[in-house]
Amino acid sequence: MPPQLPYPDNDREDRQISLRTFCLKANELCNTAAVTGDWGPYVKFVVSGLSGGNRVFINTYEDSENPAEMTLGEFRDYDSVFSITTNLPFKTAMSVYPIPPFKDTLTSDIHMSGTIYDEDVGISCNFTLQSNDNSTQNAEKRIGLHNIPNMCLGKIKPRQVTRIFFPRLYCREARDSTISTANLTTIYDHCLRPAILSVCPQAESQWPISYAHGQLKAQGKNGFHWGSVDIGAPAMNAFADALRRQLDKYPKFRDSYFFHDIMGTKMESHHDPERMDQRSRSLSSLLDYVNWDQTDRAEWTVDVAYNLWAPDRVLQWKASAHHQLLGFILPSLSANKVEKLQKSSTRFYLDRSSQLKDFAGLRALPGRDGKQDKITYINAYTTDKTLTYQKHNGVFQRRRATDLFPSNISHLMDNMEKISDLFREAGRMGWATTVRLEVRTTYWEARNMLHEFPDSLRQAAIASLDPKVWWSGIFLNIVPYHHSD
Fold first, then answer.
1. How does strand 462-465 pair with strand 160-165?
2. Where are the domains of the chain?
3. What would you report as the CA-atom Rg of the chain, rounded to the nearest whole angstrom?
4. Is the pLDDT assigned to residue 133 strictly greater than 60?
């Protein structure tokens, strides 16, 4: 065994301070450095926790107010709904894209699985689907939907997307969900357009002559502009059947299926968690475009969320209470099974808040352990992430080592200046945040899930902080990187 090298700060005395004390000390050092030009003490304190002969650690609980001593607001919502079908069970028109928007291809893991086919292995699935092909279906296993080639077919409303998946295009080596231009050309020219014309021949002039023609129309000076054409509800299922028949003429496109999702609907479905009538009405209203005579509710999955908030407070999940939180969501599990889930590196993920040990959200995939409680996915997080969350690459994008190259560093520093200004403004205005708990369950269980949150769990699992202190602490952690050269 190699000798243990001494840590250079082992001789320093450990000292715990509150987040508020940290901010006051950091501000003092920052003001001094602004006058003297010596940023060393400030950088060492904020980045490494070194102050004089001490090694400083932040004890965030010293700043936390007990939620039992304050009034917390609460509301419930349905954040997302998903389903896999072989038809288009809608009672309103769908806007179908001749040229599918690439940004709507499913490429991120949403913790759902679908069907793939492998000519050597057979079928791999976790959904029961009717196939137009009479091929033998053999082996079974789960494959993440985001790994299966897919494209956006159309939309019913802004937050809803219907995609079509091509399981026989799945490549186990590449695991790329995008579809080549050659395949997209074949799909439109020989499958999608003929299917449309067989159902709505009067609409021929509305559709591009070919995929190449559609690309030519969509491309502008600043990129693509995605146009769509409506298909009325009466023609919807005839179109779906015709499209899948055309696709089945090509072995690589056989056994396609549709995936429907509506996401980000938390404020649209906002309701009182204690009232069953509101829970039912919100879910029905969210899915008012679905024709339930043409689909089974058992095939639909819902993300249910419970939110707790307080005016002028930042709420955070305590990492120490994750075991209790999981036990509340999965009451059928023994304490040992909850602990095993929490220790799993493939089914449990810890999401630290601002690199602080005491505060963290979680994501969990209970798998078989969630079967009895009808839970397939759990996500506990806080809404402070909405300050910087963006799906596209922008100021808040993930950074790479190449951003530190001389040709890129000035752009990086400019972005960091904007980010630090944002955090400083959030602290100045006292920007409040909520804690949010989401579970994924069946349609039938969605109305009964997460309609209460016990007071004992609130006290054990939630910390409440002054937003001015919270955001100032984050701001002060960014400033050193402007002066670390």
1. unpaired
2. 13-58, 67-77+264-395+407-482, 88-262
3. 27
4. no
